[in-house]
Amino acid sequence: MSAPPSPKRRPAAPAGPTAERTEHGGVRVTIPTMKLVSEANTRGHTFAKAGRVAAARGSTTAVLRVMAGPVIAPPCRVVITRVFSCQLDSDNLTGSAKHVRDGVADWMGVDDRDPRVEWLVAQEKGPAAVRIEITPVTAWSLTTVSSRVALEGPVQAVDLTLTPEILRTLAAMLEALPPGGRVPLRVGLTRLRIHRLQHDHPQETDER
């Protein structure tokens, strides 16, 4: 006599939003099942698109208000990560996160064009979700230990303000650095890794 068939298991319901504090004094919020799509490539009625955008913006603000804790005031850095099974090109990726960006700005009480807020958008493959990480940033100045990274045309410029003690320590570490070694330096959210060549005199490439 054969055993009765086992009942079919229903797929587990997706977990709700989660929030956690980060090592940099910020907050990371994950909203599962939220799908970021490129509205430029989405067909449908204009009213349907408007409703979808408004719902995502409102949901983002509501989740942050309930789970993110105290508002993180500018200056800060916001990283919005789109998690989905397929990838978007860079311009569509930025556009897909616009309503989430607006929702974050609503929570912070600022205009999303506020220059004190740096916005970054990333993506990775996985079950549909949106991850939002908001981190306070120390504004760069010549009067406190601080850093900034800026694009100047095609050039990426890094400014560091360090104390004499840090500079002396860094100089000693660089002086003692062996071939192939590395000296890490972290100032705020800027992380530098200074490497020494494996060979002091790089071999010339034979192009014959």
Structure report:
25% of the residues lie in helices and 30% in strands. The radius of gyration is 23 Å and the shape is globular. α1 crosses α3 (98-108). The chain has 208 residues and is of the alpha+beta class. The mean pLDDT is 88. β6 (146-152) and β7 (155-161) form a beta hairpin. The protein contains four helices and nine strands; from the N terminus they run ββαβααββββαββ. The strands form three sheets. The protein has a five-stranded mixed beta sheet with strand order 1-2-5-3-4, covered by helices on one side. The protein has helices at 46-67, 90-96, 98-108, 164-175, and strands at residues 18-21, 27-32, 76-84, 117-125, 129-136, 146-152, 155-161, 182-187, 190-195. It folds into two domains: 18-136, 60s Ribosomal Protein L30, Chain: A (2-Layer Sandwich); 146-195, no CATH class. The longest helix is centred in the first third of the chain and has 22 residues, at 46-67.
Mean pLDDT: 88
Distance from N terminus to C terminus (CA atoms, Å) equals 79 Å
Q: Give unreliable regions as ranges.
A: none
The CATH topology of the largest domain is: 60s Ribosomal Protein L30, Chain: A
Q: CATH homologous superfamily of the largest domain, by name?
A: Holliday junction resolvase RusA
CATH architecture annotation of the largest domain: 2-Layer Sandwich
List the main descriptive attributes of the protein structure presented here.
globular; 25% helix; five-stranded mixed sheet; 60s Ribosomal Protein L30, Chain: A; alpha+beta; single chain; two-stranded antiparallel sheet; 4 helices; 208 residues; 2 domains
